[in-house]
Specification:
The structure holds 2 protein chains of 2 kinds.
Chain A: H1 17-38, H2 45-50, H3 57-68, H4 71-84, H5 86-113, H6 118-122, H7 128-161, H8 167-218, H9 223-234, H10 250-266, H11 271-276, H12 283-314, H13 317-322, H14 330-379, H15 386-411, H16 416-430, H17 432-440, H18 446-465, H19 492-508, H20 516-528
Helix pairs in contact in A: 1-8, 1-14, 3-8, 3-12, 4-5, 4-12, 4-14, 5-10, 5-12, 5-20, 7-8, 7-14, 7-15, 7-16, 7-18, 8-12, 8-14, 8-15, 9-12, 10-16, 10-19, 12-14, 14-15, 16-18, 16-19, 17-18, 17-19, 18-19
Chain B: H1 2-12, H2 16-21, H3 23-56, H4 58-61, E1 64-66, E2 69-70, H5 71-111, E3 113-114, E4 120-121
Classes of the chains: A mainly alpha, B mainly alpha.
């Protein structure tokens, strides 16, 4: 053991506030210039929603990693490992393995059959109107929960990084984040948003890499010594073993299974991830982008393993828990411990940028779904011209931005990880069965899709409302009431199989037969790429 | 957006059922499914086996193998290894076994289309 770095004094953090803000302002200025430059070619709907399908696989893969590695995964997982040890590591495994579902079963086929949104694929061979409405509703629901999580995360991050602890000050920062995000999306569309995500992903991964190298260097590049250090500081050898968080009771063990299911099946059904596959010119590039993102995300989660145990060893769980921001402060505190105010400032700015980029990606997805699926296809019955559709999308961006700001202010202080896990569970229940059935099962029908989507969405949300997350426990959203008749905090283990079952049942009971010509077309197009949307040239 | 509408029209004349029933397409479909389905089942089983062990076999997972490194950590890292390996395997499989056949079928359709009667149409753009 050769570390002689001074202990972390949380009071020192406030002195770095100006530096944090300065680095963040620099990031905003640089990305804004890029967004304005990138937006010059935004002419058609394909430009606005899908960046003219002009990104390469590696670029899009980096942007996907930027989209996926949200503040919840960077701050949340590092903190979870620092406090709960091994159980925190299991989150990152679920988040990573989930990408194989996207790679093998979804990405390329979706790119070949769709145009702008998830609903394009789901309604391809079924009845347009009902399926499109259902897909748009679940897209909006998932995006909304995810948005809330990110905005709430912004609030708690601020309390630590900028030293703003009063409610009004945090609300002001949430408004600033929301306003910036609206500007990015309005001006830059998908192209601008993608560039923000690419830059942010590179900064985040580089920052994490530097810190990982640093921590490992302190322990002579010996992982076993690092783990030993974590045990020594925490005084608890169980930090290296599974079960510290989830092994307490039989219910909590079952809860972990449920969470594991939601994580691994949720990713390939997240609308904002699916929409990214339309920004590349071909299915082959879509495949390349998933491969890139798997490598980047996998690498990043390996870093968080070192960072989490590093924080446990060098900062200590007690200091982390006592700091403003609690568990989420593990990574920033470790940065401060290692590199002082400058590294803390950099990491904080990256964490802010992360929230900004993820929120922008979610907003454009929700706006595209509303304008393309609900406005153009249902309200205007397919007769809206693309220019009007983009105008509607832009207006939707403002509405969603304002909703996110309001929701963020009220959700401030809520458990971020819960909101994200909720989004994953809702995505896996409402979207995944219908995506897989419509791509792979010939006899799937409209009724099956409707039952599965509404059944999955409804059961996931109802079970959450009846879970200890909402009432009946000290940490609940409504601690005073108790209507928690469902014991698990994640509904996945019930709602996901239920949605698959409903999709099957609805299809076999459906008396209406689906158009086999459309089924043939979808199958041929999905596998060969015939007639797939091409890149727009300028 | 003009050219997009045109493309839809171009493929509207294609008899997809005809294409679907061709031997080449059935071969492509078989090759795709015979890889992705078993692979998806395999990695999901391996992942859930891991989660179950971590959940219910804490003693076993806590067995120290080398220094402070225990079976749980090794199995966790193996999940990363298998994820990377399956990714690489799938890419090489698609490049060798799927892409050539898919491109062949695509060119055939886009080059000279089949109409509803199975006759070929020539002169369609792209």
């Amino acid at each position: 053991m050769t570390f002689m770095v001074p202990a972390v004094n949380v009071a020192d953090l406030k002195e770095t506030t100006l530096l944090n803000m300065g680095i963040f302002a620099l990031f905003v200025a640089v990305t804004m210039i890029i967004v304005i430059k990138a937006s010059r070619n935004n002419k058609t709907a394909a430009d606005y929603y899908a960046a003219g399908r002009s990104f390469t696989g590696p670029q899009n893969g980096t942007a996907i990693a930027g989209d996926y590695l949200s503040a919840a995964s960077f701050l949340g997982i590092t903190g979870a490992i620092a406090i709960n040890g091994y159980d925190g590591f299991m989150y990152s495994i679920g988040f990573l393995v989930a990408w194989l579902v996207a790679l093998l079963l979804v990405a390329e086929l979706l790119r070949n059959t769709g145009k702008f949104t998830m609903a394009d694929v789901l309604s391809f061979r079924l009845k347009q109107r009902p399926v499109r409405i259902a897909a748009a509703i679940s897209t909006l629901a998932v995006c909304f929960f995810y948005l809330l999580a990110q905005m709430a995360g912004a609030g708690s991050l601020i309390s630590l990084l900028l030293g703003i602890s009063d409610w009004g000050g945090q609300a002001l920062v949430i408004i600033v984040v929301g306003a910036l995000m609206i500007m990015y999306v309005l001006i830059g569309g998908m192209k601008g948003t993608t560039w923000v995500q690419i830059i942010k992903a590179m900064l985040l991964i580089a920052g994490a890499a530097v810190m990982t190298f640093w921590v490992l260097a302190i322990y002579g590049f010996n992982l076993s010594d690092l783990l030993g250090g974590a045990v020594e500081t925490s005084g608890n050898p169980n930090i290296l073993n599974p079960g510290m968080q989830y092994g307490k009771t039989e219910t909590s063990k079952l809860d972990f299974m449920s969470l594991g299911l939601a994580l691994v099946l949720g990713t390939a059904a997240l609308p904002h991830v699916l929409m990214r596959f339309y920004t590349v010119p071909t299915a082959k590039e879509a495949r390349k982008s998933v491969v890139w993102s798997i490598w980047l995300i996998g690498l990043f989660y390996l870093f968080t393993l070192v960072l989490g145990y590093g924080a446990a060893a060098l900062v200590g769980a007690e200091t982390i828990k006592a700091a403003p921001g609690g568990v989420n402060s593990a990574a920033p505190l470790l940065a401060f411990h290692l590199g002082g105010p400058l590294l803390l400032g950099f990491i904080s700015a990256v964490a802010f940028a992360t929230i900004l980029a993820v929120v922008a990606g979610l907003t454009i997805t929700a706006a595209a779904s509303f304008a393309h699926d609900i406005y153009a296809s249902v309200i205007a019955k397919g007769k809206a011209d693309p220019a009007t559709e983009v105008k509607v999308a832009r207006k939707t961006v403002i509405v969603i931005g304002l909703l996110a700001i309001a929701g963020g202010i009220f959700a401030n202080g809520q458990n971020v990880a819960f909101l994200v896990a909720l989004a994953f569970a809702v995505a896996a229940s409402a979207n995944l069965p219908t995506i897989l059935y419509s791509l792979f099962w010939r006899k799937f029908t409209t009724q099956g899709a409707i039952w599965s989507m509404y059944g999955g969405l409804g059961s996931a949300i109802i079970l959450i409302a009846l879970s200890p997350v909402v009432s009946g426990a000290k940490t609940s959203m409504i601690p005073g009431a108790n209507f928690a008749i469902f014991p698990l905090s994640n509904p996945g283990i019930v709602s996901i199989p239920l949605a698959f079952f409903l999709g099957w049942l609805g299809s076999v009971l459906d008396k209406r037969l689906e158009d086999t010509t459309k089924q043939a077309e979808m199958e041929v197009r999905s596998l060969t790429g015939v007639g797939a949307e091409k890149a727009t040239d300028h | 957006m003009g050219h997009e509408a045109q493309e839809t029209d171009a493929t509207a004349a294609v008899d997809f059922k005809e294409v679907q029933s061709t031997e080449r397409f059935q071969e492509l479909r078989k090759r795709h499914r015979s890889f992705v389905f078993p692979m998806a089942i395999a990695f999901l089983l391996w992942y859930f086996a891991y989660v179950l062990l971590a959940d219910y076999a804490v003693e076993f997972m806590s067995t120290k193998v080398w220094g402070n490194i225990n079976i749980g950590l090794i199995m966790g890292l193996l999940q990363f290894v298998t994820t990377f390996a399956i990714t690489g395997w799938y890419v090489s499989y698609s490049n060798r076994r799927l892409d050539p056949i898919a491109a062949e079928i695509r060119h055939e359709i886009e080059g000279h289309e089949f109409d509803k009667h199975g006759n070929q149409i020539s002169g369609v753009e792209k």
